[in-house]
Amino acid sequence: STKYRPFPPIDLPDRQWPSRTITRAPRWLSTDLRDGNQALIDPMDAEKKTRLFDLLVQVGLKEIEVGFPSAGATEFDFISGLVKTGRIPDDVAIQVLTQSRRDLIETSFASLAGAKTAIVHLYNAVSPAWRKIVFGMTREQVKQIAIDGAKVLRDEAAKRPDTRWQFEYSPETFSTAELDFSVEVCEAVMDVLQPTPDAPIIFNLPATVECATPNVYADQIEWFGRHIRHRDACVISLHTHNDRGTGVAAAELGMMAGADRVEGCLLGNGERTGNCDLVTVALNLYTQGVDPRLDLSDIDAVVNTIQYCTNLPVHPRTPYAGDLVFTAFSGSHQDAIKKGFAAQGARNDGFWEVPYLPIDPADLGRSYEAVIRVNSQSGKGGVAWVIEQDRGLKLPKRLQADFSRHVQALADETSRELGAADIWGRFEATYLPR
Ligand code: KIV
Ligand code: ZN
Asked: Could you tell me the EC number(s) of this protein (predicted)?
């Protein structure tokens, strides 16, 4: 449950718009420990992976892809160790990725020995470029790879009845493949695994490399959903990458096109330009009044853990999470924000409407004090705000105007951002000489 305040609805001239909105959170799948990890300069060691796993659980992720067990002993040992430590909550399903080869699938199942519930994720690439350039195979041969893999999944799962198994199949490179062929391959996989509405199969439809505008991906998702047999026995999962910078938009449009699940990484780590950033998708929902069912109320903990585990910096302009996203340097922005906070205090309609701030920073554990910073571009409003926050002093209007000139001079002299101590120092020197 949340007590957040969304942005008020945007007034559109024709009430038919927008034609679609997202009205509930998707199922989330974190692939931080798999797609995210495989893209790192320094892949995570077991200590970092465990720390990241704990963060994912804390944030509320219920489906977590923990690795690629057949890739080598390090991956295998981490996954089997994780299962044995008992740190996987009962309501969390771990997922592992495997290529479609009997020995690799068997290794993947072996890594999950003892798990209460697990998802085995099979994939093979289906697009013409991969068929032609990478494999030199026909459509039939590529389809057969998926069928053969699905048969091994079915048989290995049957040998291990103590685990609740789910299956995911990805026609890798889906977004650049022929849609009818992707449906044909997925239906062949369904024929083997016989999913039902109570035990559905997850079809993950990747934009392995983002090659088109997000609406094209959404159209592909919609087409797939309309044409796949037994739609009610499958979960449609989105897996976007960010090569064109629109991984989040593609996931959002994909949800509006009928998908059920979104795969990605916290803060968008992942191959090349990254996977879909789950934090941004979740908080975009939040600001639209949809409970994302992820707890991001301590965003700094998320940023710190991700930076520690990935050894990559989080850009200061990263939506919702970057260091600078709740700062205002210009005077007019500072003034508007100050008025917005004052108006917000008197508001009781459940909405959040402070100019230039799309969300209450406090909802993410960030503080109001960090919102306004003062540099040579700041106006009197910002300076007065800092004095009020720091010293509890409300400066009269005329004094604000006079003092801001002194602060401006100080900022010009130092050519840097001024902190509360600098500002108060100048105030004392100007008005309270000893
Ligand atoms: O991007 C991709 O296609 C993948 C698959 C293995 C699902 O990561
Ligand atoms: Zn991927």
From this structure: 2.3.3.13
pLDDT per residue rounded down to tens, the chain (434 residues)? 456 788 888 888 777 778 899 999 999 999 999 999 999 999 999 999 999 999 999 999 999 999 999 999 999 999 999 999 989 999 999 999 999 999 999 999 999 999 999 999 999 999 999 999 999 999 999 999 999 999 999 999 999 999 999 999 999 999 999 999 999 999 999 999 999 999 999 999 999 999 999 999 999 999 999 999 999 999 999 999 999 999 999 999 999 999 999 999 999 999 999 999 999 999 999 999 999 999 999 999 999 999 999 999 999 999 999 999 998 877 788 889 989 999 999 998 999 999 999 999 999 999 755 456 677 777 788 899 889 988 999 999 999 999 999 999 999 999 988 989 999 999 999 999 88
Q: Give the ipTM of the model, two decimals please.
A: 0.99
Beta bridge partners of 67: 96
Q: How far apart are CA 67 and CA 90, in angstroms?
A: 19
Under DSSP, the state recorded for 135 is I
Q: Which of 95, 176, 208 best tests ligand 1's pocket when mutated (most atoms within 8 Å of CB)?
A: 208
Q: How far is the centre of ligand 1, averaged over its atoms, from the C-alpha of 62 (Å)?
A: 20
For ligand 2, an ion, list residues with CB under 5 A: 35
What's the residue count for the chain? Answer: 434
Question: pTM here?
Answer: 0.90
* Residue 118 and residue 166 in contact, taking contact as beta carbons nearer than 8 Å: yes
Selection from 223, 228, 252, 258 nearest residue 240 by Cα? 252
